[in-house]
TrEMBL record, chain A:
Lineage: Bacteria, Bacillati, Chloroflexota, Caldilineae, Caldilineales
CDD domains: TM_PBP2
Domain ABC transmembrane type-1 intervals: 102-317
Keywords: Membrane, Transmembrane, Transmembrane helix, Transport
Single Gene Ontology BP annotation: transmembrane transport
One protein family per Pfam: BPD_transp_1
Keyword Transport assigned: yes
Entry's Gene Ontology cellular component terms: plasma membrane
Annotated transmembrane regions: 38-65, 108-130, 142-162, 199-217, 237-256, 298-317
Full protein name: Sugar ABC transporter permease
Keyword Transmembrane helix: yes
Family stated for the protein in its record: Belongs to the binding-protein-dependent transport system permease family.
Subcellular location(s) of the protein: Cell membrane; Membrane
Domain of life the protein comes from: Bacteria
From TrEMBL, chain B:
Keyword Cell membrane: yes
Pfam families: BPD_transp_1 (PF00528)
Membrane topology: Multi-pass membrane protein
Source organism: Caldilineaceae bacterium SB0664_bin_27
One GO cellular component, as annotated: plasma membrane
GO biological process: transmembrane transport
Phylogenetic classification of the source organism: Bacteria, Bacillati, Chloroflexota, Caldilineae, Caldilineales
Compartment(s): Cell membrane
Assigned keywords, A-Z: Cell membrane, Membrane, Transmembrane, Transmembrane helix, Transport
The protein's name: Carbohydrate ABC transporter permease
PROSITE patterns to which the protein is assigned, alphabetical: ABC_TM1
Family annotation (SUPFAM superfamilies): MetI-like
């Protein structure tokens, strides 16, 4: 039944296929550029921004291969003397915790993705179905309040809920005859706490983009579906969801690209030695390494490692999206 | 349209589920608001989770906002930053997103990749500082705008929204004799309002919350944004920055409001104004906006 | 950023070594506006400090200027500040300021071994202009400022501290049980048991393993919380390998199993919130949580009998339980690019000048102009009155912009000051009183074996990148032993794992630096 959209896209892709100009030679390319000069003019200034403020500073990537000290100034980045090759990378790979932090990073991100990605979509679907405008807008506004808590405060709230010394949850447990627990020190629960907290903080905020996508749906499609006798669930499933798939896919690709950022601040504020084994991630590892001295080079090396992995992940996700006939990154 | 019994049941269940969810989001916020209103005495005597203050006091707000013109000034800087940063951000993001949404564009894939690359690779703090210094933006308001002008992630999201707009609309407009600029402003701009509003909100919230760049680039106290000023007051007010905490630290606060109450007040102060933006944005989330503009 | 080619770090160091004496004299000052009415005979040196400030934008400009004028009259130095942002951003900004060198900076704070190569040696400056700074610190403080060749790289901020760790007891509960504050390990356990019997909610709270070791490890080992020389191979070893450490773990595990230790003691809970629940029977942590946080809660809530007091000295099976805090290499340093290093020392020396008995100059730098911003009520008795309350808004007061002697030294001397309140009462703040009384009382605790060695930990990490891993490993496993997640019979395996994590390298690098100071 996903036919309408899938069909639509296939048609569109086929229509696009001959447009690719590369094969038609230089002259044809020039003709096209001239035809679209308005578009290139529009793009020029924003692209200049990327050159100046995004690409120029990338010379800084070089310090990942150096023993760089900021006191030496920017000139030292170009001096051969400081080069150490892949030393910082191998230091990271040789760490006794390397596999542990990589595994934790990927697992925590994966759980956050698995549970945290669909929920904003569901929330957006539910909000979209509300017919009372005032209620709809109120729910929407309130749902994204927790996004504005700084991580310190959000972590403080979580701690206050969970502490055995008078925490709300433990008071409830004791009232029902149970025994107070130190939830945050339990390795079996720690990741679940991280994921739940993440959903609570971000679900409302993340649903906004899907609501924006739903605003672009042509109401005639709902009317047509209603004529065909589709009920509310069927309309959500066969009209709303396929119509916002373009947004779902791109956000999902981005989330996959962010897999190596598992929530540095959140974990740093909540973890402790009892749960290191399940919660120490790449970023907390780098943080500890940099606590003493100015480990700019090491930080840059690990950052680069993460970027390369993210590139690979997003490339693969994009391939899959394109294979499924979706609009991807390029 | 008359609703069937099933439809009504669905509506009620939906409202019920959302109401429960809303409580989960709302109660912690209420607790934060309440905590911001308790006195030192009340805080010391109450439990950990304060749902409503017995005797509300405004001492935390006094301490954060009563700093006179420096806070007023910081508010002005922050609002200016949000307005200019969001305005310029959208003014640069929207055209580029539009251009990249044109499938026929020669070189579209390489240009997209050129932008995509910047999502993942960053030069780090030092070269950015040197760049800002070289182009003489140090200690300038614009050091908070230009380096973070366009967010590439958001740019590509906006582009994907525009890709979903049927190309026939452009063809039809051109047939009617519209120039490319008219197509952009009369066809694509109105049709993109939901995503422009969303990305605009993201830019606004980003600029509202951002403080680190100001901490690095700006020395003049008159140009510091709100978040940085409040962070400073908070950091000292809560007395958790020093491993020694000798004489100097103690003289700053002879009778301070409790640290928790200060933290909570800071959230309220920094959250409420930005929340006010949202209702304006919601106007663009109305179903059928696309239809209306096509017909018009 | 200048484009000139830059010397390597080693060249830097060599250059510094050779220029050690010459640099000071060679530092030439660009012409600066002469003070008005001085006939322009002498240039007024203008200096800039990189400091943090409770007021992010500084205080009232007019008050600040009044203090600047007073300092100019007294010292002939024109002082200014580059206020650093709050929190972690301060370090970043300081590094960038030092790196770019385009903005003036003449003094900053940090651990001096981290900045060797970009700071000036201070020996000659101190000899010529800093007699009172030199006299204001103990030999020990100065040894922490010197590299092994004897060059001084800064003046001290934090050094050996006697006041930071004491076990605190709920006094009203002790009274209820008819007990005094204990002075032995058994007495401590007995006191807690008595509290627990009457108040089931009573817990022992440790502020993480580090502070717990400061407070208790000495009761079971010979060196307490200290690296130590293993007679077997004459190498420096981590505290965890001392004979007796296993006994300590076993005891802590016993406390844990009995439900004595609060369950989040090793999980950075919100201690302030925990203090207000009034469930803490024994506190084994950092002092200011009691002298500032608890004191505030007690006064806010109006508690009359509920209070805490500490044991000066607890003796256990192996001796004194506490270990003194060896502090750090934290120092005030002058960058090599400074144009007026002598002016910096002149000004700092002026603050030290009064000595411990009269801290007027320190208070000028902290509070402002005497008679305008504050005044002595009784100079002999060290009673002062602030004209603006502590909570006065930044805009209306001077905000210690020119205070460059925090930490030990003048700041510690100034904790003797009592404040006259608006209602005329005189109050000696509990926190100041504590620091003033105990900062140099070292006999209540053990001295760490290597308390006088200013380790260059950056160099150690350069040579042994796995050091953070090693520390995390030891911390994580030790806590497993305490909480019973790992049985103590696995100790042997733990030592093997430590070896795999780089114990030998750790030991070699620390021993190497230790031997430079203790041949």
């Amino acid at each position: 039944m996903q036919q309408p959209l899938g069909e639509q896209i296939r048609v569109r892709l086929e229509a696009d296929a001959p447009v690719f100009a590369e094969k038609k030679g230089f002259r044809e390319a020039w003709r096209q550029i001239k035809r679209d000069r308005f578009l290139y003019a529009l793009a020029a200034l924003p692209l200049l921004y990327f050159v100046v403020f995004r690409y120029l500073p990338m010379v800084g990537l070089i310090i990942a291969f150096q023993n760089y000290d900021p006191f030496l100034g920017i000139g030292a980045m170009f001096s051969l003397e400081n080069f150490v090759g892949f030393k910082h990378f191998t230091n990271f790979f040789d760490s006794i915790f390397f596999w542990n932090v990589v595994r934790n990073t990927v697992l925590i991100s994966f759980y956050k993705l698995l549970f945290g990605f669909p929920l904003p979509i569901i929330l957006a679907l539910l909000i979209n179905e509300v017919r009372i405008t005032v209620f709809q807008r109120t729910v929407q506004t309130i749902s994204y309040l927790p996004h504005f808590f700084s991580m310190v405060v959000a972590a403080g709230i979580v701690r206050a809920m969970l502490t055995p010394q008078g925490g709300l949850l433990n008071q409830a447990i004791v009232a029902f005859g149970g025994e107070a627990q130190a939830f945050l020190t339990d390795p079996n629960l720690f990741r679940s706490i991280l994921v739940t907290m993440d959903i609570w903080q971000q679900a409302g905020w993340n649903s906004i983009i899907f609501l924006a996508a739903m605003a672009t749906i042509n109401p005639e499609m709902y009317e047509a579906a209603a004529m065909d006798g589709a009920n509310r669930f069927q309309r959500m499933w066969y009209v709303t969801l396929p119509s916002i798939s373009f947004a779902i896919v791109i956000i999902l690709i981005f989330r996959i690209g962010g897999m190596l950022d598992a929530g540095f601040e959140q974990i740093l504020l909540l973890y402790s030695p009892s749960v290191y084994s399940v919660s120490d991630i790449i970023d907390t590892y780098v943080y500890r390494a940099g606590l003493i001295g100015r480990q700019y080079s090491f930080g840059a090396a690990v950052g680069l490692f993460k970027s390369v992995l993210a590139l690979i992940l997003m490339y693969m996700a994009n391939k899959v999206a394109q294979y499924l006939g979706q609009e991807g990154l390029w | 349209m008359k609703l069937s019994r099933g439809e009504k049941l669905f509506d009620w269940i939906n409202i019920f589920v959302l109401a429960i969810l809303t409580l989960f989001f709302l109660i912690p916020f209420l607790s934060v608001v309440s905590t911001s209103l308790v006195s030192g005495r009340e805080y010391a005597l109450r439990g950990l989770f304060i749902l409503y203050p017995y005797r509300p006091v405004l001492s935390s707000y006094d301490m954060l906002l009563g700093q006179g013109s420096i806070v007023v000034n910081a508010y002005i800087v922050t609002v200016a930053r949000v307005v200019v940063g969001t305005g310029l951000g959208l003014a640069f993001t929207f055209p580029l997103a539009y251009v990249l949404s044109k499938r026929r564009l020669y070189g579209r894939v390489p240009i997209t990749m050129f932008i995509f690359f910047t999502m993942l690779f960053h030069g780090g703090l030092i070269p950015n500082f040197v760049l800002v210094e070289k182009i003489r933006l140090l200690d300038s308001f614009w050091s908070m705008i230009w380096p973070v002008l366009i967010n590439p992630w958001w740019l590509l999201i906006m582009r994907n929204f525009m890709l979903a707009i049927p190309e026939e609309l452009e063809e039809a407009a051109i047939m009617d004799g519209a120039s490319p600029l008219v197509v952009l402003l009369r066809v694509y701009l109105p049709l993109s309002m939901p995503v422009i509003a969303t990305i605009g909100l993201w830019y606004a919230v980003f600029h509202w919350n951002q403080w680190f760049d100001a901490a690095i680039y700006i020395n003049d106290p008159k140009k510091l944004p709100l978040q940085l000023i409040l962070r400073g007051i908070l950091e000292y007010g809560t007395g958790q920055y020093s491993d020694y905490s000798g004489l100097a630290e103690m003289t700053e606060l002879t009778d301070p409001p409790p640290a928790e109450s200060l933290k909570a007040a800071m959230i309220v102060i920094t959250t409420l104004p930005i929340l006010m933006i949202y209702p304006f944005i919601q106007r663009y989330f109305v179903r059928g906006i696309m239809l209306g503009s096509i017909k018009g | 950023m200048t484009t000139q080619s830059r010397p390597t770090r080693r060249q830097f160091l060599q250059g510094v070594g050779m220029a050690a004496t010459g640099a000071v004299l060679a530092a030439c000052a660009p012409p600066v506006a002469a003070p008005a009415g001085d006939g322009g005979a002498m240039e007024t040196p203008e200096i800039w400090f990189g400091t943090t400030n409770p007021c992010p934008g500084g205080g009232n400009p007019e008050r600040t200027d009044a203090v600047r004028q007073l300092i100019l009259e007294e010292t002939g130095v024109l002082v200014n500040t580059n206020i650093l942002p709050p929190g972690a951003a301060a370090t970043e900004k300081l590094n960038l300021l030092l790196a770019s060198g385009t903005q003036p900076l003449d003094l900053f704070v940090g651990n001096w071994p981290d900045f060797k190569g970009i700071t000036l040696p201070m020996d000659d400056l101190l000899d010529v202009h800093g007699a009172d700074i030199l006299a204001g610190h103990s030999d020990l403080d100065w040894r922490m400022m010197k590299d092994f060749e004897g060059t001084t790289w800064g003046y001290p901020r934090l050094g050996l501290m006697g006041h930071t760790h004491f076990p605190y007891f709920r006094t009203d509960w002790l009274d209820e049980a008819g007990l005094e504050i204990p002075d032995t390990w058994d007495g401590m356990e007995h006191a807690y048991e008595a509290m627990k019997e009457m108040h089931d909610e009573a817990v022992i709270v440790a502020m993480g393993r580090r502070h717990l070791m400061y407070n208790t490890l000495g009761a079971f080992t010979d060196h307490g919380f200290s690296r130590w020389i293993d007679p077997a191979d004459n190498m420096l070893k981590p505290p965890e390998l001392q004979p007796g450490y296993q006994d300590w773990l076993a005891k802590m595990n016993e406390w844990w199993d009995n439900g004595w230790l609060q369950r989040e003691s090793f999980a950075n809970p919100d201690y302030r919130a925990m203090l207000k629940t009034l469930t803490i029977g024994v506190w084994l942590g950092w002092y200011s949580r009691m002298t500032i946080w608890w004191d505030q809660i007690r006064r806010d809530a109006g508690y009359e009998k509920e209070d805490y007091d500490f044991a000066l000295k607890i003796t256990g099976p192996a001796g004194v339980a506490k270990t003194n805090n060896a502090g750090s290499n934290s120092a005030y340093m002058i960058p090599r690019k400074s144009n007026h290093p002598e002016a910096v020392i002149k000004y700092a020396n002026w603050i030290y000048e009064d000595g411990p008995d009269d801290v007027t100059n320190y208070l000028i730098a902290s509070w402002g102009v005497p008679g305008e911003d504050w005044e002595w009520v009784d100079k002999e008795g060290k009673v002062a009155r602030l004209h603006s309350a502590g909570s006065t808004v930044c805009e209306e007061k001077y905000s210690r912009d020119f205070q460059i002697t925090l930490g030990l030294g003048p700041e510690t001397w100034a904790t003797a000051v009592k404040l006259q309140q608006d209602d005329g009462t005189i109050e000696w703040n509990r926190h100041w009183q504590h620091i003033n009384t105990y900062w140099n009382q070292y006999d209540g605790g053990r001295m760490p074996v290597d308390f006088d060695v200013p380790y260059d930990r950056t160099a150690i990490r350069d040579a042994f990148p796995g050091e953070p891993d090693f520390e995390r490993f030891v911390e994580e496993e030790s806590i497993k032993f305490i909480t019973g997640a790992r049985p103590i019979v696995e100790w042997g395996n733990f030592v093997d794992e430590m070896n795999n994590a780089g114990l030998e390298q750790w030991s070699e690098l620390y021993t190497q630096q230790y031997r430079l100071y203790h041949p």
